[in-house]
Amino acid sequence: MTRLSKALARTTALAAGLCLAVAAQAQTPAPKGASDGVVKIGILNDQSGVYADFGGRGSVEAAKMAVEDFGGKVLDVPVQIVDADHQNKPDIASNVARQWYDTDRVDAIMELTTSSVALAVQGLSKEKRKITIVDGAATSDLTGKQCTPYGFHWAYDTHALAVGTGGSLVETGGDTWFFLTADYAFGSALQADVTQYVTQKGGKVVGAVRHPLSAQDFSSFLLQAQGSGAKIIGLANAGLDTSNAIKQAAEFGIVQGGQRLAALLFTLSEVHGLGLKAAQGIVLTEGYYWDLDDQARAFAKRFMAKTGKMPNMIQAGTYSSVTHYLKAVKAAGTDDTDAVAAKMRELKVDDFFGRGGTVQANGRMVHDMYLFQVKTPAESKAPWDYYKLLATIPGDKAFLSAKASGCPLTQ
Question: Does the structural domain 39-156+292-367 have CATH classification 1.20.1600.10?
């Protein structure tokens, strides 16, 4: 045998051995029980910035409530919640996540307000083989072109907001749009999804302007929107940015002049902060409202007792996602990531938030969304009585199918 043929033979044998090892590993069942005597869940979100009321400490409290209601244990080991403020910065979020995974042995990270943060942490979690469940971030890319085997998206997304708020306004005559868009991944995704829906319905986008996150002065942006003559000014932002834009729009008399504001991502927390006088008449889309029914009211009453506030869809969604994760760990009989991810897709979501929801192959949790209009001060009969229900949007209409999402895992 020549030297070359011997080398080839050794290479072939090595490759064959490697394939056998990989195959054997793939066939090895996941170890039973918790790997290190505790199941740790990290809540990573904005706790001090523009989205602090959007999710913030309220989401941390909702996660703790979910663990408490689950009995505080799974697989006979305690469940622990840890939390951190990512300050809306992907680099800070990634550093926290890496520390949690490598040193603190966190099993899953949830909430993840801010799309740029969520995309960064979901990418790192794919590398580390860890589960993420996003409640606070919106971009549909999380379960679209940037989906991963371990990434899940829970409370809402930009497609659902486009179908709900965007669709309702176009269908009632709002056929020309100008966007004020937050200049990062979320704003771009929301503007793109709403634009697609508006144009499909025969509407037209006449212009757009981008503003930095946590902008203080919207005057120049609003003047451009006012000058465009668009019937609808779409606020493709969230949190305090949306609230500040609405306040300043009132100073310019934009609504009195005949244009309408579309708060494309607006929750109960921001309505409360803005007040009914300023927020009245705004149409918005959420996945939860505290006064929908007895189930929703029961959770809200307990949340109010702990926080002094009513929950929005981000906080309610965090409770739901923590609960579903723990159910999946219990059903799998292990905290092994692949086994738990498979169970998360297999199990139905049946709680006050999900209401018969299903988890698609791309990680998108499909559930009904709701179109609301903010009441006038005269219509509101009690504290936090802010919404009137206009329509229920079925989950299969609100969210893209796994096949249509663009997720490489489902093509």
Answer: no
Nearest to 261 by CA among 226, 237, 235, 222: 235
Question: Domains of the chain: which residue ranges?
Answer: 39-156+292-367, 159-286
Residue 122, CA distances (Å) to 107, 134, 135 in order:
13, 9, 13
Q: What angle do CA 349, 351, 352 make, to 5 degrees?
A: 135
Q: What's the confidence (pLDDT) of residue 35?
A: 81
Q: Give the list of residues 6+ apart from residue 367 with CB closer than 8 angstroms, or none.
A: 287, 349, 353, 354, 355, 356, 357, 395, 398
pLDDT of residue 28: 52
Structure confidence at residue 33 (pLDDT): 80
Answer yes or no: same fold for 39-156+292-367 and 159-286: yes
pLDDT 10s digits, 285-324: 999 999 999 999 999 999 999 999 999 999 999 999 999 9
* Helix 313-332 / helix 294-307 crossing angle, nearest 10 deg: 100
Q: pTM to 2 decimals?
A: 0.89
CATH match for 159-286 among 3.40.50.720, 3.40.50.150, 3.40.190.10, 3.40.50.2300: 3.40.50.2300
Q: How does pLDDT run across 243-255, given as a tens digit for each residue?
A: 999 999 999 999 8
Radius of gyration, CA atoms only, the chain = 23
Rounded CA separation 313/75 (Å): 29
Q: CB–CB of 339/30 below 8 Å?
A: yes
Could you tell me the pLDDT band of residue 30, with boundaries at 50, 70 and 90?
Answer: low
